[in-house]
């Protein structure tokens, strides 16, 4: 006879929101709530497939909406959650925490159900195949430019621009695979994610997952969203955090001039001077050998392709020029729809309010859609964030 789960056995307990909220720290138990059921994630965080931090960011809080947004096969995940179940909210407890907007959340869940019923979350595989092919063709065109026209100044610059476009566009494509947004099963999404980010870009998939899932879980939340970790050491971000710095009289940088040095520290330097080295440290330090193998194929391919034409010195100049151009492209696209928005500590707001306050959209056009990899629709992407995002964007912005 199979053992009873905590929900069925005599050990079922009832909890209040206050009791759950007290289990949020690193030095004590960590609980969270999903669909009124209370789970003890204290030990599970280290085994969580999405990483320990992303699930820990919801310790002491309701995680129903992020649970729905982050998992494809929810039925399978729920089976593994049974061992973590310790009880549920008391019948007199509301389904929503006092800090959350019940009406807005109810309307959002209704909208999400309608969108799914209309089939707008289903990805078009032909589109993604063509998207990948256009990246591969640009990659070949970059090499052919040097092979056909020689290595003089103009072909060299044209090759660098083409390769930068490849890197930027591959970055947008890996983003879709990384979100498990293209295929209905995780296996194919993970495989293509490794290929695009590993072989076409030379970065580890695990590193992207580690950072990006945290960003989506708590966008623009200080200490929880790694994308704003540049505060306060380089920039003073957001009105609330800036006022805190002023009251504490902390001066890490001349913030009154940050609008000037942002152009020197941010867009040009992020990829070539930071990410380029940190990704190897991340993969080796965390023993992500599969990721390291995929990354190695990128650098070997690039070396064997361009060193015979340019020599080692010319190859290094081309490589870092590409990283420089790609970095500017990447930073401007990703920051223009986040940094201008609200930045604060985690106030445990409802899912929709959190996403809406942290993101904004950029005007739709054929060029903007391509240039940003459809990340100009950040509101829809952050709120719903599942497969078929491109088609949902197109429908909502007709």
TrEMBL record:
Domain Cytochrome b5 heme-binding: from-to ranges: 12-90
Stored PROSITE patterns: CYTOCHROME_B5_2 (PS50255)
Membrane-spanning residues: 126-147, 153-173, 261-283, 303-322
Broad EC category: oxidoreductase
Molecular function, one GO term: acyl-CoA (8-3)-desaturase activity
Protein name: Acyl-CoA (8-3)-desaturase
Any Gene Ontology CC annotation: endoplasmic reticulum membrane
GO biological process: unsaturated fatty acid biosynthetic process
Subcellular location: Endoplasmic reticulum membrane; Mitochondrion
The reaction(s) this protein catalyses: (8Z,11Z,14Z)-eicosatrienoyl-CoA + 2 Fe(II)-[cytochrome b5] + O2 + 2 H(+) = (5Z,8Z,11Z,14Z)-eicosatetraenoyl-CoA + 2 Fe(III)-[cytochrome b5] + 2 H2O; (11E)-octadecenoyl-CoA + 2 Fe(II)-[cytochrome b5] + O2 + 2 H(+) = (5Z,11E)-octadecadienoyl-CoA + 2 Fe(III)-[cytochrome b5] + 2 H2O; (8Z,11Z,14Z,17Z)-eicosatetraenoyl-CoA + 2 Fe(II)-[cytochrome b5] + O2 + 2 H(+) = (5Z,8Z,11Z,14Z,17Z)-eicosapentaenoyl-CoA + 2 Fe(III)-[cytochrome b5] + 2 H2O
Annotated keywords: Acetylation, Electron transport, Endoplasmic reticulum, Fatty acid biosynthesis, Fatty acid metabolism, Lipid biosynthesis, Lipid metabolism, Membrane, Mitochondrion, Oxidoreductase, Transmembrane, Transmembrane helix, Transport
Superkingdom in the source lineage: Eukaryota
Record's bilayer topology term: Multi-pass membrane protein
A Pfam family reported for this protein in Swiss-Prot or TrEMBL: Cyt-b5
EC number: 1.14.19.44
Pathway stated in the Swiss-Prot or TrEMBL entry: Lipid metabolism; polyunsaturated fatty acid biosynthesis
Secretion signal, residue range per the UniProt entry: none
SMART domains per the UniProt record, alphabetical: Cyt-b5
Family: Belongs to the fatty acid desaturase type 1 family.
